[in-house]
Design goal:
The protein is α+β, with helices and mostly antiparallel strands and 100 residues long. The chain has one domain. The protein has two helices and three strands. The protein has helices at residues 3-36, 67-80; strands at residues 43-49, 58-64, 86-91. It has a three-stranded antiparallel β-sheet with strand order 2-1-3, with helices on both faces. β1 (43-49) and β2 (58-64) form a beta hairpin. The longest helix is centred in the first third of the chain and has 34 residues, at 3-36. The N and C termini lie far apart (60 Å).
């Protein structure tokens, strides 16, 4: 089988599979952004399990009206956490992580 023939026969299927994987990744990313974004004017505390699969590692701890409330809850969670594989992050209503 010539290389040119193999390219025409095999590559369309490979390219299609790669595009489907890309679409799945993009959809997973959009779903993650939606889960992490807090409601308007609020802050969301999220637990991230670094050991879990990407896009399956987050769980909502709570939604707070102020950044100070979210930081207080974050501190309490971190103090009671004994695993280095779990971290607590705060996200705002724009979907951005708050530094702290």
């Amino acid at each position: 089988m010539s290389l040119r023939f193999a390219w025409r026969c095999k590559m369309p299927n490979l390219v299609k599979a790669e595009m489907e994987d890309d679409e799945k990744f993009i959809q997973n990313w959009l779903n993650l952004e939606e889960r992490l974004t807090a409601p308007e004017g609020q802050f969301k505390l999220v637990e991230i399990d670094k050991f879990s699969q990407p896009f399956e590692a987050d769980s909502e701890v709570g939604v707070f009206d102020s950044l100070d409330e979210a930081k207080e809850a974050q501190l309490m969670k971190e103090l009671s956490n004994n695993s280095e594989m779990v971290e607590y992050l705060i996200y705002n209503d724009k979907g951005f992580m708050e530094e702290g």
